[in-house]
């Protein structure tokens, strides 16, 4: 499998952390942050062998925190590049005494390529990625064939890939791209979106979109072994 050509799917919008977010980042990053160097031993990082779930682009952390609270028997890795989000999540980790979250500041493609072992993940979540809605920028969207192939290689057979977007044309692209990957089977029906799963946390971002009449499209796939011709 070829590595995906590396076109960044994000812009670093670091923004300004509040004083409490900055304090949390300064005090807690060394405990909950991961600085990847080589292939990560996720069981060693969490000091246990529970399922490992990755959220790509956790934003301000609403879904990540909610999932970690609801499933203490699952270990969550969140990756993003937005510093205020890191500060907010670290504050909540400390306040809720959550031991099952670790954070990475960086590029998800590089993480998958260089720092996660083959078949090391039980689930990957991609909720509301940057839609790059101008047509000339569509090539910067994260969900492209090479990326989906790479992601599939890091999921265990039976693992979950759950995507959601509030941009219809990106939803259509996601559906087309993932349906074409032989490593994934649609958990709803071929070429179909999923009803909003009850276990996907409803974030402030999504609630704001609902108030403006935005639709949301969920897609849920299971990693499978491709059939042999």
From TrEMBL:
Q: In which pathway does it act?
A: tRNA modification; N(7)-methylguanine-tRNA biosynthesis
Which residues are listed for substrate binding in this entry?
134, 166, 203-206
EC number(s) reported in the record: 2.1.1.33
Q: Name one Pfam family in it.
A: Methyltransf_4
A GO cellular component entry from the record: tRNA methyltransferase complex
Main EC class of this protein?
transferase
Q: What does this protein do?
A: Catalyzes the formation of N(7)-methylguanine at position 46 (m7G46) in tRNA.
| Listed name of the protein | tRNA (guanine-N(7)-)-methyltransferase
Name the gene behind this protein.
trmB
